[in-house]
Specification:
single chain; globular; 4 helices; alpha+beta; two-stranded antiparallel ribbon
Length: about 90
């Protein structure tokens, strides 16, 4: 597995309780550990699994799937948490 660098601003999404993925959702919807079917937006944080689909990280993950750099390629639901399109927008909402 290849790691990617995440900015300090991006880290706040990993601590957002609205993005925490419940176990049932992770297995049934995100298709955890199902190869290519696994959701590309499922990320592991120190608080457990989180959804980063509605964050600025979405486009980077979509690009990595297009470039064949990820094994998880699923896009299985609308995502969890509030939609944040840019870091600037997120700062304004604090």
């Amino acid at each position: 597995m290849q790691g990617i660098e995440i900015s300090e601003q991006m880290g706040e999404f990993f601590f957002d309780d609205q993005r925490k993925v419940p176990d049932a959702h992770r297995f049934q919807v995100c298709k955890f550990k199902k190869g290519e079917e696994t959701c590309r937006y499922l990320s592991l944080s120190v608080k457990g699994y989180v959804c980063v689909k509605k964050t600025p990280m979405k486009q980077m993950l979509d690009n990595r799937v297009e470039e064949e750099k990820m094994s998880a390629k699923g896009d299985n639901c609308e995502g969890l948490g509030k939609l944040v399109l840019s870091f600037k927008e997120n700062e304004e909402n604090d």
